[in-house]
Specification:
heterodimer; A: mainly alpha; 78% helix; B: alpha+beta; OB fold (Dihydrolipoamide Acetyltransferase, E2P); 2 domains; 4 helices; 27% strand
């Protein structure tokens, strides 16, 4: 276990390991996304009140769930980077920010598209939606802060502090609909007790959430590999590895 | 663990705990502003301001919607099962607006305590089901679904 974690911190080992992982995970992700999308968009029944417009849930909820989880990963990598000063943790943190930003943007845009016909408005400053917008700015802030520094070690340290401070936003987003009166409805999927969404609609949704987790992982790994190739472009191990294949 | 790293770990934990505490206090202090709307009970009790625009949220009372024959004027009552407030609105209502469903109306209170709304939004609940299941539930229990307000 510990040797595995130590190996993860080594760029050449990680580069080879992630290459194998992506080769397996990419086809799985594409399959899951296709099956989930077809199941959700064509097979699942329409909703009794919203008709077919509810089907945007199959993009909106997975994107939002993974955007929140991705932030925890980024903050965790930031903490590891601050405490143990591991270069690979910096790379993980740096690579997860743009992916998380895109997922947050997808959640916001699909929510607006759904909100117009359902609620009657594109946008409202309710607790859930506003805190989600803050999440987008936090992700973009990490990207911008990293680019603002010439010295990348200092950049990583500043970004790690920003991600850790912003971490409090995640439980706020999650609980906002329970803590305050909001226009956004409470969660339909419940960890304990019966979900408020019928199982014929729930299963494709859970599949899409898994698919989005895989998509996040693949995108993150590819992003990290690109970063490694750039920072180690002069290193012997990379030239050797590229020469081999 | 190396003492230097241990120290950094404590520092990182402190950053997270203190920033969370600060945000928590701010959110607690601003809770009235973070709430999107007033429940009818608060409006009836006079807790909502009458000199500026407010939002009112609750369920549309069954059988309370009255539509004008000549224009778009609609009046209905909004309740949280403790108190009810009448609302007048002139405009196009969202598709999901219906009796017994959630609604958020923005407007000002007049002297009689009626909300003259400038915007009415439908609040969708968290229940998703196919039409057949909804029909089956309808047959079993007249009023399915959880109360809208805590």
């Amino acid at each position: 276990m510990w040797t595995f974690i130590h190996k993860l911190g080594s760029p050449p080992w990680f580069f080879r390991f992630s290459g194998t992982l992506v080769r397996w995970l990419l086809p799985i992700t594409v399959t899951l996304l296709l099956v989930g999308a077809i199941w959700g968009l064509l097979v699942a029944p329409p909703d009794f009140r919203q008709g077919n417009s509810y089907r945007i849930i199959y993009i909106h909820v997975p994107a939002a769930v993974v955007a929140l989880a991705g932030y925890y990963l980024m903050a965790f990598a930031g903490a590891v980077s601050l405490i143990w000063r591991i270069k690979m943790a910096d790379v993980t943190m740096r690579a997860s920010a743009p992916v998380g930003a895109i997922l947050t943007a997808i959640a916001l845009v699909t929510g607006a598209i759904w909100g117009k016909p359902t609620w009657g408005t594109w946008w409202i400053w309710d607790a859930r939606i506003t805190s989600m917008l803050i999440l987008l700015f936090l992700y973009l802030g990490v990207v911008a802060l990293f680019e603002a520094y010439e010295n990348k070690t200092a950049a990583a340290r500043a970004c790690a502090v920003l991600s850790l401070v912003g971490m409090v936003n995640i439980p706020i987003i999650y609980k906002s609909v329970d803590w305050w009166y909001s226009l956004h409805q409470p969660a339909s999927i419940k960890f304990s007790g019966e979900s408020a969404i019928d199982s014929s609609m729930l299963y494709p949704l859970l599949l899409m959430i898994v698919a989005f987790y895989c998509l996040f992982t693949v995108t993150l790994l590819l992003n990290m590999r690109a970063e490694l190739v750039w920072t180690h472009r002069e290193s012997g191990w990379l030239k050797q590895l590229i020469g081999d294949s | 663990m190396h003492p230097v790293r241990k120290q950094r770990l404590i520092l990182v934990s402190l950053v997270v705990v203190l920033s969370s505490a600060a945000t928590g206090l701010v959110a607690f202090a601003l809770r009235d502003n973070i709430n999107l709307f007033y429940p009818p009970a608060d409006v009836v009790a006079g807790k909502a301001p009458t000199d500026r625009s407010i939002r009112l949220g609750g369920m549309v009372v069954e059988g309370s919607i009255e539509r004008s024959d000549t224009d778009l004027d609609t009046t209905f009552w909004v309740t949280d099962y403790e108190a009810s407030v009448p609302v007048r609105y002139s405009g196009i209502l969202p598709d999901l607006f219906a009796e017994g469903e959630g609604v958020v109306a923005e407007g000002t209170l007049d002297e009689s305590g009626m909300l003259v709304a400038t915007q009415v939004l439908a609040k969708h609940d968290e229940n998703y089901m196919p039409p057949e299941v909804a029909a089956a539930l309808e047959g079993k229990t007249a009023s399915q679904g959880q109360p809208f307000l805590p």
